[in-house]
Write a sequence for this structure.
């Protein structure tokens, strides 16, 4: 491209003030250009500075941050040196923004239409009637249902995927030259994500609008971006055309990101099975739910007639979208949420639905690990205290034996023994999740229920946790029930997979042959909706779908 | 005005660093000052509190009577110093009783849930529906005023608030996964309350204790001002204002300084609570 | 506007809670004034009275009946406007209270009319220019007023306006029949004092409510649409803060109940509160009961209004 770039960023530096009042630099001198009509992806893990960079193109910094150096030229303006009121003129008309969570970004007390056309009102672009007509046109282009009337609703009356598209309409109403997408599909389920991505792609292409697409997901970015900028620690690691980055990565960090995407085939644990050995867990016709109980049934019924079994030493994956009841299933098995009907057997013996009527030994043999490591560790207890309690509680250890075992557990999850003096708040997300695992291991369990334990982690860190899980399995002969919304994670560790939809199991499949064997339409939809690291994947779906 | 002071032994190391700004430090210093005064009052008071030392009444500030003299010609400074024992002592006793009761009941209600929680919450909320000064008036009218009655009444008035606050915090902590983990391990209620929940609500509960202490000081002063609190010949700061209210139109120090004493105590507690020393983790990664 | 079913259930629930609270509060007041003091007949007649005289009076007053019947009888009396007879002046309590109540209500109404608009303007202004000099001055003033007893605010007001400036009389509720100027002067000090106490709370809560909504993603979104600070606060934050603000107003007005007791006493204002404080010193229990119930009911009313506005303003309950 020989024409003048739409955006030129040179030597951009953004500083922040830490809790301690110390100044740090979070963006350390970035240079990049965006050409008219081009979509550039900013990719990186949390804390890489990708959102901060994207927002700076609108001259906006979150509280505590400030642009400390460099220039940001957008069109004819230098955003970095403009006054706040001059920036306000730019926002919405030349550069606009699509937020990560449209559900939070829509004002709950105003109707959708009023908010979508607000930009035209702020900047006096066109009369209200004309703006509403234009909005309806955009709703139609974004494939929203009931384009004529959806604007009269309140935000809480439409679904998350629809809100995300409405947020795009809100961004496009002022005919901007550049649209910033800030992780716009991260909060969505995969099947919804596809529709939203398609809608975004078609309106952006139709209007020849330039875009900045912020994401941590390479596969999503592969579908929409022309060029990719890889960020880490506030610096550009690598920059190049989407195909080049995906197929010919040069920088080690980019290679690590791509490697985390590589499907790692799961090798089933090879162990001799006694002919009369009972499955470690057997669940039959399980029903569970929340709320007030009437006539033996709760108000909100979640799980309906769930049946499965986990053989000793094998792993079962449970996949499904938000609201499918997969976490409820884990809670029912753990006894945290007592099932109201159905039967469970643990190693051949009856497992009662509620915690109180299970024996201490049964509680010990089945442990659960939670999704959010932050909330699963008591912030007021040291790591040593956290790991010691199950040792004392289940095994009656004390004194030196207990201390030695704590060191051993830390070693098992590859953490230094010195970490036992720390508080959870002083650990990184990956380290916390390892402590979480170590606490479960302290009980010496036979089955571990893992509830989305890698979902909140960055790709590379999550991959390391999966490796650890596999390693522990071979050492300790564990079984896992692995709950996730991410198919590739499940594929990497499980032998069998349950597909759940609205509280029911729609299908049970061998993990290795998920794509080939799936029969149920929902399983097929779910599997086909997972973005692939292939620039033509979304377009290919368009043809076949 | 707010300068930041770091007292980290190892900057950049793993040790915790603390941030405690000047506003908070001044507050803490004033609190300590009044605590020392309350303890040693009889020793530092220049005159016996009952002694009529001045021929004049509502005398001005002078070298002999630093804060002037009161409506009978007694030394105001001595009476304020000794009055601190009543104001601070009664309020402290009441606030500890209210918070200890409220916090324990609140944690138990949060962990047990169910009918116990519902009934207790309803009942204590209903008591919150009585204006506090009125509650005090009615009790004093019914049984008369004495120091034990005052402590118990003040504690009863502020217990429902302490309960509500502690329960709300405990319900949040109780919903956290680490409590679920402990429960799934098979732990019993006392362990859940004292090991998992209490350490995590301690900070806010202490701050709440301070806020409630201020309320109690204000209410006690109000009652004494109405003549229903500490009874003569003893006098807390509120009673000192009442005794000398005649001097108000003269702008007498005898009515101004007890007011200032109350204000310095309550404002310094508020200053301290709003600017508690914070343990900070330098998150620059 | 149509409302969802949950909405009506919540309203009904809230009113039910208010009713239950009223019963519990009445019982507490009754218990404190009728049962705690011991034998009222003995109290009335003094230590020197003969046993027969005490027994006779006890029977005449119905004190020999079980407490629960006396409670129900008393509640029935309250509901029908029969507040009983004053021990001290031997006049019907209702008569004693009638004029006084009008005076107190007038004081409360004038204070509300002045302090609510003022407090809202200051609270919203402080939030809009958060961190500015204006905000800081307002914050320091409000926290100072909240940190000191009501009587101190009153004393300060007297010192400033009466002693130093000499604009207003110090401690008088003069002839109200005089000129408008005289009436204004008579009301000024109590209203200023009460206004300070009530507004300080209201300003703090209003400011907090608006700032909480300013820190939401949808207000940041408005900023990124190019909206001015004014539009962000008044157009986006304020409509969502209305519930919490209305709640704050009602809750702050409930401070009137406590404040009025001190203010009427210090300024010698002939209202219900002054009547009650006097009744406490003469232990005139029927009078105390009735005054206490008036205060409790008005307090409960304000708290309930505060809760109801919070429910009414939740946009998620709109259809």
């Amino acid at each position: 491209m020989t024409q003048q770039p739409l955006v030129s960023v040179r030597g951009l530096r953004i500083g922040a003030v830490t809790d301690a009042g110390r100044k740090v630099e979070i963006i350390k001198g970035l240079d990049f250009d965006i050409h008219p009509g081009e979509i550039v992806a900013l990719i990186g893990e949390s804390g890489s500075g990708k959102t901060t960079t994207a927002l700076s193109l609108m001259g906006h910094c979150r509280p505590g941050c400030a642009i400390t150096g460099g220039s940001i030229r957008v069109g004819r303006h230098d955003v970095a040196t403009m006054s706040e009121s001059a920036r306000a003129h730019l926002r919405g008309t030349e550069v606009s923004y699509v937020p990560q969570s449209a559900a939070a970004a829509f004002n709950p007390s105003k109707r959708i239409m009023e908010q979508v056309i607000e930009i035209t009102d702020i900047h006096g672009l066109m009369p209200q009637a004309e703006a509403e007509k234009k909005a309806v046109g955009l709703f139609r282009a974004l494939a929203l249902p009931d384009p004529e009337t959806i604007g009269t609703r309140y935000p809480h009356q439409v679904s998350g995927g629809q809100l995300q598209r409405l947020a795009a309409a809100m961004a496009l109403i002022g005919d901007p030259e550049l649209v910033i997408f800030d992780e716009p599909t991260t909060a969505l389920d995969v099947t919804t994500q596809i529709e939203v991505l398609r809608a975004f792609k078609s309106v952006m292409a139709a209007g020849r609008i330039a875009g900045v697409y912020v994401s941590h997901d390479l596969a999503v970015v592969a579908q929409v971006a022309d060029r990719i900028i890889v960020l880490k620690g506030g610096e550009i690691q690598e920059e190049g055309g989407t195909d080049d980055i995906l197929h010919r990565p040069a920088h080690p960090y980019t290679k690590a990101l791509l490697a985390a995407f590589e499907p790692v085939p799961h090798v089933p644990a090879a162990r001799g099975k006694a002919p009369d050995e009972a499955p470690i867990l057997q669940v039959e016709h399980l029903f569970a739910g929340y709320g007030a109980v009437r006539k033996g049934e709760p108000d909100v019924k979640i799980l309906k007639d769930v049946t499965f079994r986990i053989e000793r030493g094998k792993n079962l994956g449970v996949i499904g979208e938000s609201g499918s009841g997969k976490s409820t299933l884990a809670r029912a098995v753990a006894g945290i949420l007592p099932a109201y009907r159905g039967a469970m057997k643990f190693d051949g013996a009856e497992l009662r639905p509620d915690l109180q009527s299970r024996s201490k030994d049964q509680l010990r043999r089945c442990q659960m690990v939670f999704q959010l490591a932050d909330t699963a560790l008591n912030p007021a207890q040291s790591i040593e205290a956290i790991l010691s309690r199950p040792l004392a509680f289940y095994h009656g250890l004390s004194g030196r034996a207990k201390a030695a075992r704590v060191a051993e557990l830390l070693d098992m999850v590859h953490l230094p023994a010195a970490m036992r003096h720390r508080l959870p708040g002083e650990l990184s997300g990956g380290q916390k999740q390892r402590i979480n695992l170590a606490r479960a291991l302290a009980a010496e369990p036979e089955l571990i229920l893992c509830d989305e334990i890698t979902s909140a982690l960055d790709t590379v860190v999550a991959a390391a946790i999966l490796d650890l899980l596999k390693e522990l399995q071979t050492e300790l002969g564990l079984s896992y029930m692995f709950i996730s919304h991410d198919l590739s994670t499940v594929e990497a560790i499980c032998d069998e997979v349950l597909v759940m939809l609205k509280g029911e199991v729609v299908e049970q499949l061998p993990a290795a042959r998920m794509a080939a064997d799936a029969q149920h339409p929902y399983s097929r939809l779910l599997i086909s909706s997972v973005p692939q690291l292939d620039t033509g994947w979304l377009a290919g779906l368009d043809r076949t779908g | 005005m707010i300068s930041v002071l770091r007292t980290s032994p190892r900057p950049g190391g793993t040790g915790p660093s603390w941030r405690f700004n000047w506003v908070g430090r001044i507050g803490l210093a004033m609190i300590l000052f009044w605590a020392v005064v309350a303890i040693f009052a009889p020793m530092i008071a220049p005159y016996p509190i009952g002694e009529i030392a001045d021929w004049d009444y509502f005398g001005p500030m002078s070298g002999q009577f630093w804060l002037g003299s009161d409506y009978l010609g007694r030394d105001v400074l001595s009476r304020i110093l000794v009055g601190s024992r009543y104001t601070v002592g009664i309020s402290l006793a009441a606030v500890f009783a209210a918070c200890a009761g409220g916090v324990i009941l609140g944690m138990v209600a949060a962990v047990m849930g169910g009918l116990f929680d519902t009934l207790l919450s309803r009942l204590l909320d209903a008591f919150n529906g009585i204006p506090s000064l009125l509650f005090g008036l009615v009790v004093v009218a019914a049984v008369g005023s004495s120091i034990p009655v005052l402590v118990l009444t003040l504690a009863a008035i502020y217990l429902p608030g302490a309960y509500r606050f502690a329960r709300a915090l405990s319900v949040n902590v109780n919903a956290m996964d680490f409590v679920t983990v402990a429960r799934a391990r098979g732990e019993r209620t006392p362990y859940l309350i004292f090991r998992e929940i209490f350490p995590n609500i301690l900070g806010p509960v202490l701050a709440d204790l301070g806020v409630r202490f201020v309320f109690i000081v204000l209410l006690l002063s109000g009652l004494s001002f109405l003549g229903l609190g500490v009874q003569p010949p003893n006098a807390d700061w509120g009673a000192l204002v009442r005794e000398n209210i005649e001097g108000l139109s003269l702008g007498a120090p005898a009515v101004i300084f007890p007011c200032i004493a109350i204000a310095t105590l309550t404002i310094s507690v508020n200053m301290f609570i709003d600017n508690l020393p914070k343990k900070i983790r330098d998150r620059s990664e | 506007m149509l409302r969802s079913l949950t909405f009506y259930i919540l309203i009904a629930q809230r009113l039910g809670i208010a009713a239950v609270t009223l019963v519990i509060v009445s019982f507490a007041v009754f218990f404190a004034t009728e049962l705690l003091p011991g034998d009222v007949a003995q109290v009335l007649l003094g230590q020197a009275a003969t046993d027969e005289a005490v027994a006779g009076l006890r029977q005449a007053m119905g004190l020999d009946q079980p407490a629960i019947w006396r409670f129900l009888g008393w509640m029935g009396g309250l509901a029908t406007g029969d507040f009983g007879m004053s021990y001290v002046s031997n006049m019907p309590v209702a008569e004693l209270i009638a004029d006084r109540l009008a005076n107190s209500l007038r004081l409360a109404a004038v204070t509300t009319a002045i302090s609510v608009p003022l407090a809202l303007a200051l609270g919203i202004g402080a939030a809009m220019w958060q961190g500015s000099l204006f905000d800081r001055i307002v914050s320091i003033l409000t926290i100072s007023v909240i940190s000191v007893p009501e009587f101190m605010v009153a004393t300060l007001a007297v010192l400033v306006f009466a002693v130093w400036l000499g604009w207003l009389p110090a401690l008088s509720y003069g002839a109200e029949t005089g000129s408008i100027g005289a009436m204004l002067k008579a009301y000024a000090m109590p209203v200023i004092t009460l206004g300070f106490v009530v507004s300080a709370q209201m300003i703090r809560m209003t400011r907090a409510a608006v700032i909480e909504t300013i820190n939401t993603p949808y207000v940041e979104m408005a900023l990124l649409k190019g909206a001015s600070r004014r539009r962000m606060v008044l157009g986006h934050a304020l409509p969502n803060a209305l519930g919490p603000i209305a709640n704050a107003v009602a809750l702050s007005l409930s401070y009137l109940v406590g404040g009025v007791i001190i203010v009427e006493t210090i300024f010698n204002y002939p209202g219900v509160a002054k009547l009650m404080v006097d009744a406490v010193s003469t232990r005139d229990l029927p009078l105390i009961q009735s005054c206490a119930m008036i205060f409790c009911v008005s307090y409960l009313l304000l708290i309930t209004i505060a809760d109801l506005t919070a429910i009414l303003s939740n946009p998620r309950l709109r259809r």
Summary: The longest helix of chain A spans residues 190-207. Chain A touches chain C at residues 55, 58, 60, 85, 88-93, 96-97, 99, 101, 104-110, 118-119, 122-123, 154, 156, 170 (CB under 8 Å). The longest strand of chain A covers residues 281-294.
